[in-house]
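We now fix the convention by which a protein and its fold are recorded. These numbers are not coordinates but entries in a learned vocabulary of local backbone shapes. A record is reproduced here so that you can trace the correspondence yourselves:
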Amino acid sequence: MEAYLIIAGLIFIAVLGLQTWFFYQLLQETRQESRLYRGAIERQLRLASLPHIYCDIQPSLDAQGTHLGVYNIGSTPAYDLHLDLIAAYTVEALDLASFMRTFVQPRFRKYPLQADKVGYYGIRNSHRQPFLAHQKRLEIPLQLPANPVDVYVLLQYREISGNNYHQVYCFSEVNDRGGYRANLVDPLRADLIERLHFYDTDDAKTSPQDKNLPFPLKAFIDLWNHSISAKYTVLEAEGLSTPLIVQNL
């Protein structure tokens, strides 16, 4: 009789342990699903609360040059937009001596402009816009002394909490009528970064922590330091670009 009671007790303990393990696993799975669901909701809310900005270069409607369009296709505004632009040339297509003699004001022709290690140099400028509402676009005419081989753009902007996002664009010339096509957008989705400050009359200074910057951003900084300010060129307009009014998409 005692043997039966012992066996029955052991069976009861085994069943109880199995049930406890089963409910524990079920609880863990429920918690995991809850975390995944909560994470998905948080990501959706974060994406919904962010501006969605992209850039493109298009010929002007009046066929007078090209313009850079900055589009906010999201549902929230972007703040403190900072656009740094480089119109890039090559020494193979336009040597530095000819460029300085033809397109740079005489008093600035001793500027120590040099090409980078692959033969690129450029004209640089910065543009700032305090606010770009959702479903709006900003058009910036590109007023250049000669058609560049590439146009590089570093876009930075903040969302309402103050976080700074960035993207690097490279637009390459596809025809001589102002046609350019983006062949690089990095990162594909704007990513967080500490605000980088560029001034078109000064070379960019990097700090030790900048060693971890993405390669396209490092390449942009390098080309910036092998460029000359648009203020030093013979352009009648002030700078590389003059913003138009913000318009609806």
